[in-house]
Design brief:
The protein is mainly α. 69% of the residues lie in helices and 0% in strands. The chain has 21 helices and no strands. Helix 2 (12-28) packs antiparallel against helix 19 and helix 9 runs antiparallel to helix 19 (430-447). Residues 1-9, 451-456 and 458-481 have low confidence and may be disordered.
């Protein structure tokens, strides 16, 4: 697959629209269903419209990465679209839960909505909520590597803003006006999010990138490259603040995934040629991060870790979700139908008065909401993630160490997000879903590097004449004889 040079086809307006979408999603899209999400969705429509205009101008959509990259978009959108299609009543009535609903509606003279989704409006809202991530993914693939890296720098800046905001929230206490969501964790840092776990998810996704960037700068400086030590100090400080932010969020999953992110980052960083500078930077980052975490967040961390994992409500939610999913199989409830489907089974299981909005396991929740239709998209997206990882770690880079390091590190961030979805639902926020979409586009672009068209071989004067005139070429050959 051949690609044009970075600068020849890049579009600055598309880059600025992507930057604006990233800012809006991360600052205003940390909850679910608010005005910030609506603003991000409207901006996503503008980004997609601009990308479509570029396609019309160029005659085709120029994207980087493998040829199948853009096919991930219809795979992602297929589930909500299919759930909005009408189906026969005989098919709608499949499954124990649907049969019971059908009987209850028939007893009062009503008929169900002939769609796969039990609540089509909720499925439609879920479809709209995917637009920011789709717009970022499609546009990110069209940007040059240089501008992709600028977006990663903007992502780090926004993540650090979350940490600073979280520190201010803790300083002002539970009634802080800097907590922008009513249903929030009152004693932990949440940043621009409504949930501490979703803040932790963002920080642990950005942490491997910051570790790799700091190590890369130190490694290049040790090799004699003209790099200011100030940039190395900025990288170290950024990584330390991210580690402190995870500790202040006091998310158990965030703490464990943060340690995993550091461990998994080591092989890629230590593969750099001059590792002396990288080792020193990593030692300094981990030492400072651990010291500040102990100083400011140790008591809260110990309180969180002291909770018995067996007593954690997530295990109970998982069992109830499995029972509800079995009753609603094979079609599921439709996206956005978790809460209404969960409540009857929650009552039967003796759950307390608390309201459970999500299963805290996105894969189980998708199984309940999507039924059998959810399996192909989940499997295909996970296969794409695995293929990207294999390419990032074992592919050929023609000695381009920077591309190799970015591909591996960004893939690790995606892996962390996929693992966190086993115990939470971070990707149901516009903020984290847009970040994952950007990271996926960057991973695909760097794992499958551009292959420029080979230059045409130089022709001799005789060959040039032959190519211009077959008759002249034949006369030349005849005279040579």
């Amino acid at each position: 697959m051949q690609f044009p040079a970075d600068a020849s086809r890049d579009d600055s307006s598309l880059f600025w629209l992507c930057a604006l979408l990233l800012i809006v999603a991360m600052v205003a899209g940390g909850g679910q269903g608010g005005r910030g999400d609506m603003l991000a969705q409207l901006l996503a429509v503008v980004v997609l419209a601009h990308a479509w205009r570029l396609k019309i101008q160029r005659g085709k959509f120029i994207h980087h990465g493998p040829a199948w990259a853009l096919w991930l978009v219809p795979v992602l959108l297929a589930l909500p679209v299919l759930q909005l299609l009408p189906i026969p009543s005989s098919l709608w009535n499949r499954g124990a839960a649907r049969h019971e609903i059908f009987s209850q509606l028939a007893s009062v003279g009503l008929s169900p909505s002939p769609h796969v989704a039990l609540a089509p409006l909720a499925a439609e809202r879920a479809l709209w909520s995917l637009l920011p991530a789709v717009a970022m993914f499609v546009s990110g693939l069209a940007l040059s590597k240089h501008r992709q890296r600028l977006l990663l720098g903007l992502l780090l800046t926004l993540a650090l803003m979350n940490v600073v905001l979280g520190m201010a929230q803790l300083a002002q206490g539970p009634e802080s006006a800097l907590r922008f969501y009513a249903n929030t964790n009152p004693t932990e840092a949440v940043g621009f999010f409504a949930n501490r776990n979703h803040l932790a998810s963002l920080l642990v996704m950005v942490l491997p990138l910051t570790l790799a960037a700091s190590a890369w700068l130190a490694n290049e400086y040790a090799r004699g490259a003209p790099i200011s030590p100030l940039w190395i100090a900025v990288g170290i400080l950024s990584a330390v603040l991210l580690i402190l932010g995870v500790a202040l969020a006091r998310s158990r999953a965030g703490l464990m995934l943060g340690m995993l992110a550091v461990l998994l980052s080591l092989p890629g960083i230590l593969s750099l040629r001059k590792r002396r500078g990288a080792k020193r930077v990593l030692t300094l980052i981990l030492g400072l991060g651990l010291m500040l975490s102990v100083q400011f967040a140790l008591f809260g961390i110990l309180q969180r870790l002291d909770t018995d994992a067996v007593e954690d409500g997530r295990w109970h939610y998982a069992r109830v979700t499995e029972a509800a999913a079995a009753a609603h199989a094979p079609l599921g409830t439709g996206l956005g139908g978790f809460r209404l489907a969960f409540q009857p089974f929650e009552v039967r299981a003796g759950q307390g008065p608390s309201i459970i909005n999500h299963a805290h396991d996105d894969y189980l929740e998708l199984w309940l909401e999507g039924g059998w239709l959810a399996l192909p998209p989940i499997i295909l997206l996970l296969m794409a993630l695995i293929a990207t990882g294999l390419r990032a770690w074992f592919g050929r880079y023609d000695d381009n160490a920077q591309d190799r390091l970015i591909a591996r590190t960004v893939w690790l961030s995606l892996l962390i997000a996929a693992l966190h979805s086993l115990v939470d639902y971070p990707l149901r926020t516009s903020a984290d879903s847009v970040v994952v979409a950007l990271l996926f586009a960057v991973a695909l672009s760097h794992a499958w590097p551009r292959t420029p068209a080979p230059p045409a071989p130089a022709m001799t004067p005789d060959e040039s004449e032959t190519s211009r005139s077959p008759v002249a070429g034949s006369n030349i050959r005849f005279l040579k004889r």
